[in-house]
Amino acid sequence: MSKGLNDSRTDFPILDQEVNGEPLVYLDNAATTQKPVSVLQTIMHYYEHDNANVHRGVHTLAERATEQFEAARDKVAAFINAPSRKTIVYTRSTTESLNWIASSFGNAMVNEGDEIVISELEHHSNVVPWQQVAKNQHATLKYIGLTADGELDMDDARKQITDKTKIVAIAHASNVMGVVNPIKELAQLAHAHNAYMVADGAQSTPHLKVDVQDLDVDFYAFSGHKMLAPTGIGILYGKPEILDEMEPTQFGGEMINEVHEQAADWKESPWKFEAGTPNISGAIALGSAIDYLNNLGMDNISAYEQELVDYTLPKLTQIDGITVYGPHDPAKHTGVLSFNLEGLHPHDVATGLDMDGIAVRAGHHCAQPLMEYLSCEATCRASFYFYNTKEEADRLLDALNEVKEFFANGTSKAERTV
Amino acid sequence: MSKGLNDSRTDFPILDQEVNGEPLVYLDNAATTQKPVSVLQTIMHYYEHDNANVHRGVHTLAERATEQFEAARDKVAAFINAPSRKTIVYTRSTTESLNWIASSFGNAMVNEGDEIVISELEHHSNVVPWQQVAKNQHATLKYIGLTADGELDMDDARKQITDKTKIVAIAHASNVMGVVNPIKELAQLAHAHNAYMVADGAQSTPHLKVDVQDLDVDFYAFSGHKMLAPTGIGILYGKPEILDEMEPTQFGGEMINEVHEQAADWKESPWKFEAGTPNISGAIALGSAIDYLNNLGMDNISAYEQELVDYTLPKLTQIDGITVYGPHDPAKHTGVLSFNLEGLHPHDVATGLDMDGIAVRAGHHCAQPLMEYLSCEATCRASFYFYNTKEEADRLLDALNEVKEFFANGTSKAERTV
Amino acid sequence: MGLAKLNELYKTVIIDNANYPRHKGQIADPTGEMQLKNPTCGDLIKVSVKVDDGKIADVGFTGSGCTISQASASLMTTVLMGKDVKTARRLILAFSKLISGGDIDDEDEELLGDAAIVGSVAEFPTRIKCAALAWHAMDEVLDKTQKS
Amino acid sequence: MGLAKLNELYKTVIIDNANYPRHKGQIADPTGEMQLKNPTCGDLIKVSVKVDDGKIADVGFTGSGCTISQASASLMTTVLMGKDVKTARRLILAFSKLISGGDIDDEDEELLGDAAIVGSVAEFPTRIKCAALAWHAMDEVLDKTQKS
Ligand SMILES: Cc1ncc(COP(=O)(O)O)c(C=O)c1O
Ligand SMILES: Cc1ncc(COP(=O)(O)O)c(C=O)c1O
């Protein structure tokens, strides 16, 4: 069996196991990715040699911890071509990054009658925080629609984004439809109307080269755990002059400059946003994950995943009775493949696949407005990363056919009002 | 050399190293503790066998991850004798827990003219969030003073807490003064005035048996990293009926029940508070840390630390020219020892100790109002955990005398307007 | 191959109940109703019950979802129809134990009848919630009925 | 023992400058002032400078803090007094390099004189910020002076 891009598969010990008596095929990478040995070793090394609280101590361990914590920030900055470490705020996750943007910057910028524009394919984490801002500020939340192919409808974008728009917030890549959205164009559109551009990079940063200065976004959010790093660490990038103006949403600990009994003021960005002890080992491990990704090369990762999609998508769409969501042109499709088999509930399909050792996700993928839009309640989703292989794609395709057969002949045309 | 409580020292590989050519003596446990092998192994095992996103998948790994994540919640609940897993919310840290309480519950409960009561010995994380609530709601933030000995002045508490008081928020144990505050009594006092009681358990939960039902607190907050768990995981306990009413502060991801284009509603507690992918490995590792602590026994830990204090405090106070903060009666003192040497800046002292392999903290310990109150700018702080030993206490005492001598004779009576 | 194990979950009775659900539909004059949803997957079950003189005189369900949730709802209505409320709640508890891999009384197992077959879901932990949905909803309805 | 290494940091010149700081106090008619604080430890330095015809005609500092921050401020004022602004900024840059463990020009090293001795702080990473405080403050003042 092939070993993924550059034999990288061997760096992921978890993949080498049997699940339900079959070799594991992990295709739930859009939910979270697995971690290479080098990242795990970074965590262990940190806790076995250098662990201390950051920014606080004058002793040697504290200095080592601080040094590594800030060096990781520099790696993140370089990875997305941010202008400096000062623009990189550590958060828990994409969700927290988007919430901080919405609840601080959003509530400050948006006034009564203003509009916030998102799209029909957003993840809940890029929907509900904006619903809250709209509710708080008596503003309007508008949705950009999709083309028949499942891509963002840029004609509609040009209609929805107007001089009333204060914020445009769009996923860089969709976690359901497998499309990459034209963030640079959207940012231009937003800026032409004096609106700010927020991009949700949860599904893009792990898979393609991101350049926040070229995209000219005002904010960019992503999660470590979807790009080889542990859970509990995420990133909020903001343009320096915007972060300087933005108020923190959490207070206390080392974010503070001076505290008196009745008042306090903050340090400068990004530290003013990081209240309390941060996820130090998570941040350092994210730095290590970025080293790993850089070593493979983001362009190579994109190209390799494209190969997997070129191979899989046409075969998948040929399965009788399948609906595959998003563009059918593999060139327009990322390694996120959502589908339904006619007459079968995605949960039953996923259980069938799980019995065959294949991990896919079934559900609404935290995108209920999109499910409403597509008039379906749930889908199956298989999502690739660079350690997946064509052999694994074949295992998925074969298993799907068998699951179909099982429910057709085994016993059933089992119900489902899906 | 002795090996700490039950030889536990050997479980902490990081302690077995030289710093600046001397065996490390880690006495910065109030900032963060070291991690035992069993906790590190839990993290590794999780990432090498079970890693997946929680609550979202129907595949085997997702089920394993979810199962462990929720089992850890049960361990936390049992550890502080909370009535059920539903009262245990995962956060990043004590700081985040306190911020969520203040910004959601606090802003909802406190109205114009109301009062919030904290104390002179609070950590910034239990000061600044309440300053924000007071500012937002045009309420008053009041401080309970300290006795000459550095204990909470309960006479003053009875004066400060009145029918105007809506919230009383106090550290269970101080991170500077080495005192344990009478939270149960304060809760009674608060409740007698229909106020709510918030306890900051960052410095108590790692060191003594906590029973939130016996204390009858409405909220309790603490951090994993100060009790053997990794950074990036903290706990917010709330009484069930209060959490049910309290609104989340972050939105999106799996905290949601239903999302439509213009509105959404939430799951039940505690899940409604946990927006986005949580720190899964951190939570599971916290469960493992609790196993470790239970195995030693919290009462044994308290007793052992008391022995260290009984041994060290009298010797420390005898050093010529030293000021030791907090009660001088060892029975009233926790393993947090703050002090200053006359004429020496704490930074210079800490550097001296660091050169001798001894890690202590120097600074304001995120307690600037307390520093103002004590009229000093900074202190040195040595803080014990159960893996520390009397031999290490001796090393500290010896080194302090040498540092004193160095600056006295070596060359100097080096300045310092401290 | 792995799929063979599927037969353990999707037994004939289950497939049959999913394809031809019993008591599906809204009943007349319900004394209690409850809709529950599994937010993760969108499975939705609404149960209605008519309690008369301490006995379940009529019961039905509506909703949509996977094979397991539909079959389990169908089997539940069959079991509970005609039972007195106390027995019904005992059986719900027994079912709940069964699907979490616990042991139950022989008597309860007999009363559960075909529904006990759903117990095999215990080996498919990712699907226990699907099996439990209708029973949870019914338990809440009956709890309210008893209290009022 | 470990403390022996302390001599490398707390050299006689440093202790001397901490005990008997040069140019400590507020100067008359400053053209620029800047207060900086190290929020972690509370070290506080305020520098004042009088620039006349492109030259530093007078310079002073006030504040409190540890031996290193006080000594470094004192040594800085001694070095910069009388220098033209361009040279001063070059020397600040050189000092900044030196304390981060970098190499600098022989000429700059000579001009820094005793202040170069603070360079040994490079081996004490936890104290680099203390050494840098006054110099950072001065750099910001001179930057403003040049721009205005
Ligand atoms: C497009 C998109 N946005 C946001 C998120 C939320 O990420 P996290 O759960 O790490 O906060 C996800 C992942 O589930 C996603 O796919
Ligand atoms: C009493 C007290 N409260 C709160 C905190 C904040 O904890 P964290 O930094 O983990 O949020 C600390 C620790 O620094 C503390 O000692």
Automatic annotation (TrEMBL), chains A, B:
Cofactor or coenzyme needed: pyridoxal 5'-phosphate
Q: Does the keyword Acetylation apply?
A: no
Entry's InterPro entries?
Aminotrans_V_dom (IPR000192), Aminotrans_V_PyrdxlP_BS (IPR020578), Cys_dSase_SufS (IPR010970), Cysteine_dSase (IPR016454), PyrdxlP-dep_Trfase (IPR015424), PyrdxlP-dep_Trfase_major (IPR015421), PyrdxlP-dep_Trfase_small (IPR015422)
Reactions accelerated catalytically: (sulfur carrier)-H + L-cysteine = (sulfur carrier)-SH + L-alanine
Q: Which Gene3D superfamilies match?
A: Aspartate Aminotransferase, domain 1, Type I PLP-dependent aspartate aminotransferase-like (Major domain)
Q: Its domain of life? A: Bacteria
Q: What class of enzyme is it?
A: transferase
Annotated Aminotransferase class V domain ranges read 25-396
| A molecular-function term among this protein's GO annotations | pyridoxal phosphate binding
Asked if Methyltransferase is a keyword of the record, the answer is no
Q: Name one GO biological process term.
A: cysteine metabolic process
Q: Which CDD domains match?
A: SufS_like
Family (UniProt): Belongs to the class-V pyridoxal-phosphate-dependent aminotransferase family. Csd subfamily.
Its recorded name reads: Cysteine desulfurase
Lineage, broadest ranks:
Bacteria, Bacillati, Bacillota, Bacilli, Lactobacillales
Automatic annotation (TrEMBL), chains C, D:
Q: A GO biological process this protein is involved in? A: iron-sulfur cluster assembly
Q: What is this protein called?
A: SUF system FeS assembly protein, NifU family
Q: Native species of this protein?
A: Lentilactobacillus parafarraginis F0439
Q: Name one GO molecular function term.
A: iron-sulfur cluster binding
Q: From the UniProt record, list the coiled-coil ranges.
A: none
| UniProt record similarity statement | Belongs to the NifU family.
Q: Where are the transmembrane segments?
A: none
Q: Which domain of life is it from?
A: Bacteria
What Pfam families is this protein classified in?
Answer: NifU_N (PF01592)
The record's InterPro entries line, in alphabetical order, gives:
NIF_FeS_clus_asmbl_NifU_N
Q: Can you give the residue ranges of the NIF system FeS cluster assembly NifU N-terminal domain?
A: 10-130
